[in-house]
Design a protein that fits this description.
InterPro entries: DUF5344. The protein is built from two helices and no strands. It has about 90 residues and is an all-alpha fold. Helix 1 runs antiparallel to helix 2. The radius of gyration is 23 Å and the shape is rod-shaped. The two termini are about 25 Å apart. The model has no long low-confidence stretch (mean pLDDT about 85).
């Protein structure tokens, strides 16, 4: 088992870009409000559920975008740390 962490930045960047595009294109709303000539309790309940589910999807989308952004930052920190360590090792030689 290797103790080296290998990150291919271009691959990570491509995957994160794909993830971000998928998240942003995700449909977070359902059909428009159900209405008709008769106002039934069931229609009201369906509209409430529709609104609640739309809110949940929007929150999920926000969480995914935050996760994607934090992953990018983590990769940047890892890259910077790796460069700093490489510089230190080179200065010891």
């Amino acid at each position: 088992m290797s103790t080296e962490i290998k990150v291919i930045e271009a691959d990570v960047e491509n995957v994160l870009n794909d993830l971000k595009n998928s998240i942003q294109s995700m449909e977070t709303s359902f059909s428009t409000t159900i209405q008709g000539k008769c106002k039934l309790e069931m229609v009201d309940k369906c509209n409430q559920l529709n609104d609640a589910f739309t809110n949940v999807l929007e929150m999920y989308q926000t969480l995914l975008l935050n996760s994607e952004e934090k992953t990018r930052k983590s990769v940047d920190v890892l890259k910077e740390t790796e460069e700093n360590i490489a510089t230190e090792i080179q200065s010891l030689k």
